[in-house]
Amino acid sequence: MLRDIPPILSPDLLWSLRAMGHGDDIVIADANFPATALGARCHRLDGISATEVLEAVLRVLPLDSFVAEPALVMEVVGDAAAVPPVVEAFGRIVEATADNPAPLGRLERFAFYERARGAFAIVQTGESRLYGNIILKKGVIG
Amino acid sequence: MLRDIPPILSPDLLWSLRAMGHGDDIVIADANFPATALGARCHRLDGISATEVLEAVLRVLPLDSFVAEPALVMEVVGDAAAVPPVVEAFGRIVEATADNPAPLGRLERFAFYERARGAFAIVQTGESRLYGNIILKKGVIG
Amino acid sequence: MLRDIPPILSPDLLWSLRAMGHGDDIVIADANFPATALGARCHRLDGISATEVLEAVLRVLPLDSFVAEPALVMEVVGDAAAVPPVVEAFGRIVEATADNPAPLGRLERFAFYERARGAFAIVQTGESRLYGNIILKKGVIG
Amino acid sequence: MLRDIPPILSPDLLWSLRAMGHGDDIVIADANFPATALGARCHRLDGISATEVLEAVLRVLPLDSFVAEPALVMEVVGDAAAVPPVVEAFGRIVEATADNPAPLGRLERFAFYERARGAFAIVQTGESRLYGNIILKKGVIG
Amino acid sequence: MLRDIPPILSPDLLWSLRAMGHGDDIVIADANFPATALGARCHRLDGISATEVLEAVLRVLPLDSFVAEPALVMEVVGDAAAVPPVVEAFGRIVEATADNPAPLGRLERFAFYERARGAFAIVQTGESRLYGNIILKKGVIG
Amino acid sequence: MLRDIPPILSPDLLWSLRAMGHGDDIVIADANFPATALGARCHRLDGISATEVLEAVLRVLPLDSFVAEPALVMEVVGDAAAVPPVVEAFGRIVEATADNPAPLGRLERFAFYERARGAFAIVQTGESRLYGNIILKKGVIG
Amino acid sequence: MLRDIPPILSPDLLWSLRAMGHGDDIVIADANFPATALGARCHRLDGISATEVLEAVLRVLPLDSFVAEPALVMEVVGDAAAVPPVVEAFGRIVEATADNPAPLGRLERFAFYERARGAFAIVQTGESRLYGNIILKKGVIG
Amino acid sequence: MLRDIPPILSPDLLWSLRAMGHGDDIVIADANFPATALGARCHRLDGISATEVLEAVLRVLPLDSFVAEPALVMEVVGDAAAVPPVVEAFGRIVEATADNPAPLGRLERFAFYERARGAFAIVQTGESRLYGNIILKKGVIG
Amino acid sequence: MLRDIPPILSPDLLWSLRAMGHGDDIVIADANFPATALGARCHRLDGISATEVLEAVLRVLPLDSFVAEPALVMEVVGDAAAVPPVVEAFGRIVEATADNPAPLGRLERFAFYERARGAFAIVQTGESRLYGNIILKKGVIG
Amino acid sequence: MLRDIPPILSPDLLWSLRAMGHGDDIVIADANFPATALGARCHRLDGISATEVLEAVLRVLPLDSFVAEPALVMEVVGDAAAVPPVVEAFGRIVEATADNPAPLGRLERFAFYERARGAFAIVQTGESRLYGNIILKKGVIG
């Protein structure tokens, strides 16, 4: 454990967050997400909710201000307009914690997988609420 | 996630529990434990308490009945008789969950480290209560 | 061996089942299947029949309910309508054991190979009955 | 599968049997044996009994005739004179199948572990009978 | 060395033969063949003729009966109709030793290389006769 | 770069600081220190002074309060009582920045090397002042 | 440290500079550049400015005289004509230090990333000025 | 060193020459050639001229007689007809040393790089004369 | 294959012979020798006799003239004075082929194994004659 | 090649020289030295004399001034007082090129090997003069 750094940020996750550069994506994924199959770097946080992880990550990670939608969630299959509770909670955390808050963008399920495949890393949480997945694009510190 | 297997048992931890044989030790360690330095196989469960991990592990792992003390905790430095609350909780969980319950044995801090160095694996939890460390010796299924 | 987990699920196979996510495929293949050539992760269960493995796997793996055919078998070469005894047995096991039973889908031999190439893992059993191959798509636990 | 070679001999196990030389040991171990912790090369045959494996191995492996006890079993803890049924079966298979049959030698439990640690390979079977462990020393083909 | 298994089948070659499945190819190549450049798995048998290797391989490997030409040789450059003595010898060995004998098919030199690139393994022999190369497709054991 | 974390803490160094546990040592070494030869994990910060690194490290790393001398410097060869300016600066930084400040302990040159050999990691800085080396023992966060 | 070689050139960076050949590119990047994601070889110089690194690199690296623009910078997003102070400084250093000085070429942000992806190596500096990125093409020593 | 084998043929270079087969290319490159970037196998002979290396290589390597131009050099950029002194020397060495001498073929600079990228190996010599690069195609020993 | 180098010297064996230095040992072992277990570098020449290998090796390897017994064979177990035919043949080959011929020394079986464990490499031949093992110490080329 | 750095210093050798710290040893060895067997890091400079390498190395490497004999040569076997010509040349080069010249120390052959075993790296040159071996201890740059 370290002083003033959220304790759920594991050594490997902290490494990825620090090594990422401007424009690199990180995915925070729920417990059912095919993270191992999609991502070269997969950091597990079994048993932790995606909302706790999102808050801890945004405390240290700058969000990109060069793009309109630096944070993206997955659309509900068969109901693109739906906003599941976990997604609503994501929105509130981004608003409250990010250095550059922005409304959440959306991607269809397989487009989300495709985007995740090119991400710098995927964090597999223990989130049991369906659609508890979010992609963050790293910004700069000037 | 799998049916009827506690979800905090990660793929790597499940691998170790299944690959261990009779007499192999596993350490469930608190967030301050020098797990990376001591153990060849270190499974992280950041953010999860040691008591939750102990309960999940004992639901699948048989405890050794060939030895008197198949479960061992660390003595408080400077007060060998003390029983910290987390250790008391360990005792109750072993009693309630193990297939072969047994009273907890004790090891002095550096003897505990030495024993951990030879363990099959160490699980580094997010336990923030000091002395939240326990060693389990695997038993047989006959 | 572990408590209440089928003993033929080896450490590596258990790892794959646990690490797989929603939509990932696993192949249970007979003794003649070109598993090593097709699959990055090949788990061997020499000497065990494919039906025993299917039953053990379905006791822990949720089957996908997002698609119509979450379980697929290989068509007999030259007789697409044939239902070999081992395939009939597969159908009964899926019906009896899966959390989301569904009728078996079918793939032509080389289409089956192509699909297997992208699977998360292939389990090579000792099944000596020809056409003793089945693909399972993992579902979610909500 | 290959012609005239017992199908439960997996690729890795066949590799070890062929690569072993005069005097190298191989251990056939039961499902509770701490094989992963003790052996650099661990071949799993989950679900197969130790007696089936012993018979298949002895069909291809010459037994050493330079030593008095080329095959060794583990003594029952607390009853060194006992002969468990699985050990009795081992004796009959060695007698019937080995090129150089010899009576079984015995080692105390921890001496058996120590010997296994230096073996060329350990085969972890699915043997559920306790004490289903045997060490074989490879002989020469002149 | 093992009982009743041809001694020139090395540990690695035996591994490949056993791990191959239905439809996988293996190449037995002469001493001038670019085996290292073409093949991911290259087994060397320096000093052994290709005909000796072919006979040893066919004693354990089933030949595919699902295709018309399970065994293929390389056409002489500039004289496609020629049958070099080593190829004639290949034909006699396939006839005498294979479980499913079949007449030899032929491939132009660069088509042979391309096919070899996708093979499961290449055995580089010490064969000094030019065109001493043959591809075998593995069959099934029912 | 990350929010509120000193930018000279590189991804690898941050990984080590986070993965270290209670009682593990980290060495901050000058540009002439034989870090590669002594340490399994060597993190380079070429061009940065040891004092800058010490301050950045102590902002996140807790110092051990279980031992009398959690911070140790190297004695000047041939003048054990000397206090080089860089060591004086180390003392002021520990006093000002550590969570558990303590006076600096001392080790003779080769004893310092021996201790460094067992450290969790060594940070090789660009410090050009001789004797710009310090060992820190990690504490706990309760 | 070595005699007469700039001390901020780390062992790995020196390796890359020496191993590069005619026409290979090296990128000197600022602290926000996505170096780990883009480059197979990433050398970190955290805490050092890009201008210091450029000067040290050009003291040992010949610049290519076969092309018109052997040094390339990134255009400001949304203002292609702008010349940020750090780029102005790059120009002066190339002029003063290179063996074959040449005016700086320019690439649009994503074209710069694409070019960087094929570079021999990327040096991630601690440069905090935005647009502190430059690509150098190695020349020959005749 | 070995009896009757040119001592500048290093262990790795000798390995490549021996492992190459009919039709595989090897590049002997000058000190400015981008060998590390282009070649999977790069053997360094720093300080040795390309002509010395060519002579040593041709003493053991058969040259291909199946193609018209088994040896290829790089055209001078901007003067395709030029024959630099080092190329003239290459011609004399091929004539005097090769088992199957042939006139040198030529490739434009970038075509030469492209061909080198597919070579079995590249030998980076210390040749300081520009255009001191040659590709050799291995022949057969009948 | 290479010009004037014995074709049974494989790429790996040639690498070892060339990389060995003054005083390094190489073992030429029969088909029953425990080569894989004893040696870090094991080169297989299945199917080739030890005498053929010895002759090929001595054509390129200088024998040490700094020691009295640069070539050592294994004593017959139980009959130290015996000279098996293969050993007699070894003696004649050393006499006829070595640059520095010397009478063969002898080592008891387990002392031979111990010496082999420290050798630079072991060549496992297909030698079927018992006691077909010899150790050679490399000399210098002045 | 790099500006003002001796071209025979290869990328790997330059890496070692730069990564070495105060007190680390490097060995420059002749062509017969058992470098691969003794050293974890072995840099080859086949075909280059040891004296050329010594001069190039000393142009960049500081020699240790903390010990009396920072440069050590090997005694002639059987004539400890002899000074072979290559050693005489070593002495002159150290005198002329080192930053801290010192008379050469001496070690008996096997003591020299033992010291080399602990060195940071060994450079295997093509030196054909016997006893062309020297150990250098790196100094500091203050």
Binned, the helix content of chain A reads 25-40%
- What oligomeric state best describes the polypeptide chains here? homodecamer
Instruction: Output the strand order for the largest sheet of chain A.
Output: 2-5-1-6-3-4
The CATH top-level class label of chain A: Alpha Beta
Bulk shape of chain A = globular
The CATH architecture of chain A: 3-Layer(aba) Sandwich
Distance between the termini of chain A: 28 Å
Topology pattern of chain A, helix = H, strand = E: HEHEHEHEHEE
CATH superfamily of chain A: RbsD-like domain
By DSSP, the count of extended strands of chain A is 6
Low-confidence stretches of chain A: none
Estimate nothing, just give the exact number of structural domains of chain A.
1
Mean pLDDT rating of chain A: 96
Organism (chains A, B, C, D, E, F, G, H, I, J): Limimaricola cinnabarinus LL-001
Keywords (chains A, B, C, D, E, F, G, H, I, J): Isomerase
InterPro entries (chains A, B, C, D, E, F, G, H, I, J): RbsD-like_sf, RbsD/FucU_mutarotase, RbsD_FucU
GO molecular function (chains A, B, C, D, E, F, G, H, I, J): D-ribose pyranase activity; fucose binding; L-fucose mutarotase activity
Describe this structure in words.
10 copies of one chain form a homodecamer. Chain A has 142 residues and is of the alpha/beta class. Chain A has one domain (35-137): RbsD-like fold, CATH 3.40.1650. Helices cover 32% and strands 18% of the residues of chain A. In chain A, strands 2-5-1-6-3-4 form a 6-stranded mixed beta sheet. In chain A, helix 4 (85-97) links the parallel strand 3 (71-74) and strand 4. The mean pLDDT of chain A is 96. The A-F interface holds A 1-5, 7, 9-12, 14-19, 59-62, 99, 140-141 and F 1-5, 7, 9-12, 14-19, 59-62, 99, 140-141.
